[in-house]
Write a structure and sequence with these properties.
67 residues
Length: 67
């Protein structure tokens, strides 16, 4: 069971920043870029769903998680 400590939230934000950067395509790699971004986004969402439950079973509120 994975658990996000507050320290890891900064890493998550960095991950999203990187994701948004990959979504801006360079000439000629639009589709590859898009696929990569979609894959990353899906992965992020899956990760978030898996990690939004803390050890004691209480669910971290989505707003707090993404703020």
């Amino acid at each position: 069971m994975m658990y996000i400590k507050p320290a890891a939230e900064g890493e998550l934000k960095k991950g999203w920043a990187r994701l948004y950067r990959t979504m801006i395509p360079k000439k000629g790699e639009h589709n590859k870029c898009k696929a990569k971004a979609v894959g990353l986004a899906t992965l992020m969402i899956l990760m978030q769903n898996r990690t939004s439950r803390s050890r004691n079973g209480s669910v971290i509120s989505k707003t707090k998680f993404w703020s």
